[in-house]
Amino acid sequence: MQNIVYLGVGEIKKLEYHLFSWANLYMDIKYELIQNGYAWEIDWQEDLNLDKVDECFFLKELAWVILNSGMRETVIRNIFPKISSAFYDWESAYTIQLNSIKCFQKAISIFNNQRKIKAIIKGAEILTNKGLKKIKKDLIKNGPTSLKIFPFIGSVTCFHLAKNVGYSTTKPDRHLVRLSKIAGFKSSDQFCDEISNITGDRPAVVDIIFWRYASLNSDYMNNIPKQLSEFRNSRDTMLKSNHKMHRINR
């Protein structure tokens, strides 16, 4: 379970006021998600470690990212257990390659998208031929773009896959890019890194918390500025009150 630690009033002197507001908003959102049953997702992202990722896990996440490309996450989550069963629960890339026709026939009856089902099978072939050890080595050396060797893994989804297999990065999807811009940052990496530096949460955790909140709240682009404004107003009132008390006590 994630710990919730709010920043103290005294720490405002150490941080830019703008960042302080975003960090506290982040902690509010994190608490809300935990209360609504998403602690498992936060813990999952926190515990990911590239060194511990095996072929089964990599295959599963590769398929997850391929299927989610351009789709609502809730749609894929509902069918993913059946898709996994069609691919022998990601037992091994070789097993999928050996039984590719059977895997295709079962999977296409669940999710009627030939290109994506074929992409998963092709991904298993690439993984068999190249080997997980080399793929992980290339990822560490060259970063997420090295994963573009897989079908359906492009300039954004390569970051999604890298993050999901424990590489330290964030995913510049539309939600994170929008939030980064209104927060005044040039990239989602910079935005998540700054919040990470303040809160102590990994950048990938910051990413998934803001992403999950945005996916659950369609009007988040209007709600977040309002929440920030309310927080700043309440903080200004508190600081003014403290200043008055200081003058009285002198």
Tell me what portion of residues adopts beta-strand conformation.
under 5%
Order of helix and strand elements from N to C terminus? HHHHHHHHHHHHH
Please give the radius of gyration in angstroms.
22 Å
Counted beta strands: 0
Q: In whole angstroms, how far apart are the ends?
A: 45 Å
Number of separate helices = 13
Looking at the structure, what is the overall shape?
Answer: elongated
Number of domains: 2
Structural class: mainly alpha
Regions with pLDDT < 50 over 5+ consecutive residues?
11-15, 237-250
Biggest β-sheet description: none
What percent of the residues sit in helical stretches (DSSP H or I)? 55-70%
Overall mean pLDDT: 89
Task: Name its key features.
2 domains, mainly alpha, 250 residues, 13 helices, elongated, disordered C terminus
Please tell me about this protein's structure.
It is built from 13 helices and no strands. With 250 residues, it is mostly helical. The chain folds into 2 domains: 116 residues, no CATH class; 112 residues. Helix 1 crosses helix 13 and helix 10 packs across helix 11. The longest helix is centred in the last third of the chain and has 30 residues. The radius of gyration is 22 Å and the shape is elongated.
